[in-house]
Amino acid sequence: MLNYAPLHVRVSTPRIELVGATDSLLEQLQGVVRAGKADAEPAPYDDPMSLYESDPDARVRQWLLGIWRGRGSVTSSFWRLYFVVMLDGEPVGMQDLVGDGFATFGSVTTFSWLSRDVRGRGLGTEMRHAILHLAFDGFGAVAATTDAFLDNDGSNGVSRALGYQQNGTDWATRRGEPGQLQRWRLTREEWLRHRRGDIHLHGVAECREALSLP
Question: Does residue 51 surpass a pLDDT of 90?
Answer without folding.
Answer: no
